[in-house]
Description:
The complex is a heterodimer of chains A (86) and B (219).
Chain A (H helix, E strand, L loop, with lengths): L2 H40 L5 H38 L1
Helix pairs in contact in A: 1-2
Chain B lengths: L1 H43 L5 H38 L17 H18 L8 H19 L21 H16 L4 H23 L6
Amino acid sequence: MSIEEAKATIRKGIEACDKAGVAIREAGRLSSTAHALARSTAHDSRHEVVTRGLACLAQATHEIELVLRRLNTATDAADQYLRVLG
Amino acid sequence: MTGDLSKVIRQFRQVISDLDRAATVAETARKHAEEANTHYVEVGRGTEHPRINQARYESQTAGQKAGKVARLLSEAARAFEEYVNLIAPGAIPRKESSPEAAPDSARILDTTRQGSRSSRLLGRVGAVPNADDGLQHAKKLGNAIQDATLPTGTATPKSTPAFVKAKEPQGAYAGDILIAALTLTIVGIRGAELARQLRRKTSSAKKEKDRDNNNGREH
């Protein structure tokens, strides 16, 4: 693989990470809306399945933050390697 | 009450719909992150530079975590679907779910289907038009089944969930618990024959209780 081919491939990787970021943010937006509606609808329900559903959403929100962080780190590292290649 | 129940169901349907869409979008994020990883792996074949290794590792982890997000969102949707079908059996048919969203959804849907099937086998809960009547009906039925099954353990789940053991439940929550207890009691029983056995046990247990209450005056 030539330097130019390597750079082109890295740019594809960065582009794919950007798309992943857009998608996971959209998932987060939908999840956040659903989470708020579920909480207000269930309000004082202590039913086990409701509790489980809300816990899944709380964990999903946390994981979405981690996905975004990992994607940003990957893109930063790829950018730095692009600069190394010149 | 009926109006409140229909509003709750309508709002949960919206929640489930949003979560199924969110799970699908998170799955798309996973695919993009995996695609990025494939590119970084390709570039990394010719070098051990720490930055490209880092890009490869981080994109791989991002993809795995996006997949986890999709599963969690789908699991949440199935939990709310299960809840709606507990408080209003059959309110959410299976076709509304999106099994492609996550690999675990089939297993979760199986659980939901078992619950619905159990209700149908018993042939009572699903046909009640009024929510209050339904909860009272479920309470009686649940008590009868528990009375009938606990002594022999024929239809007792291996482990009773904590919420089934709750003491003196009240109001709508009591209905939730008892319908859930009813559903879980039946889970694991296969086919109409076992359901019939359960009904016979329910009937015989009631008779025994009646005899006890009458202090043997029947004999």
